[in-house]
């Protein structure tokens, strides 16, 4: 008679043999960005509220920025799907880094939900690149933009990079949606 909670030795042996027959790294889950095709209203509201609060802070500052990082002559829809994912991953890297900077206490609290969402999206994108296109080389368009991003990180102040990332937050979200839509993004 088997007791609840008791695992017979045969079951342990079977589980161990299946584990070696199907190694865990071979059971990778597929890439799914479906949840980013249509963002839920409370996430969008939190993003909008944070952006508006930041704009109010900007009005009171004397920041002079010329960063044109998010001004491009092409749209993400013109890129291949792996390029779109790389683009958004880079945009999210910048945005999450900037949202992680020390800030006014009221802004620190307001950015927590958007930062958590954007960080999760970045991790999901990284997972997709690792499973679907680990050796992908960016197109010339994307490579040029990535170089522009690296140069901006070296030459722009943290304040200007922060302003650029937050003020263009909805462009990043649209780029994320395009990456999630895959071939259906037009």
UniProtKB/TrEMBL annotation:
Any one GO biological process: positive regulation of immune response
Pfam family, one: IL28A
Molecular-function GO term, any one: cytokine activity
Gene Ontology, cellular component aspect: extracellular space
First and last residue of the signal peptide: 1-21
Compartments reported by the entry: Secreted
The entry's keywords: Antiviral defense, Cytokine, Secreted, Signal
InterPro entries, sorted: IFN-lambda_sf (IPR038326), INF_lambda (IPR029177)
Similarity remark: Belongs to the lambda interferon family.
Protein name: IFNL3 protein
Gene source species: Burhinus bistriatus
């Amino acid at each position: 008679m088997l007791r609840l909670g008791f695992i017979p030795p045969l079951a342990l042996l079977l589980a161990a043999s299946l584990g070696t027959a199907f190694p865990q790294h071979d059971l990778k889950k597929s890439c799914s960005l479906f949840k980013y095709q249509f963002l839920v209203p409370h996430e969008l509201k939190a993003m909008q509220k944070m952006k508006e609060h930041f704009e109010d802070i900007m009005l009171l500052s004397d920041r002079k920025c010329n960063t044109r990082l998010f001004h491009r002559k092409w749209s993400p829809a013109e890129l291949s799907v792996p390029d779109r994912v790389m683009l958004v991953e880079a945009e999210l890297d910048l945005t999450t880094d900037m949202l992680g900077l020390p800030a006014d206490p009221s802004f620190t609290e307001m950015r927590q939900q958007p930062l958590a969402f954007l960080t999760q999206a970045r991790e999901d994108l990284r997972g997709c690149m690792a499973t679907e296109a680990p050796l992908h080389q960016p197109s010339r368009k994307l490579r040029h933009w990535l170089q522009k991003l690296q140069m901006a990180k070296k030459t722009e102040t943290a304040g200007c990079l922060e302003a650029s990332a937050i003020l263009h937050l909805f462009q990043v979200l649209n780029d994320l949606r395009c990456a999630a839509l895959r071939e259906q993004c037009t």
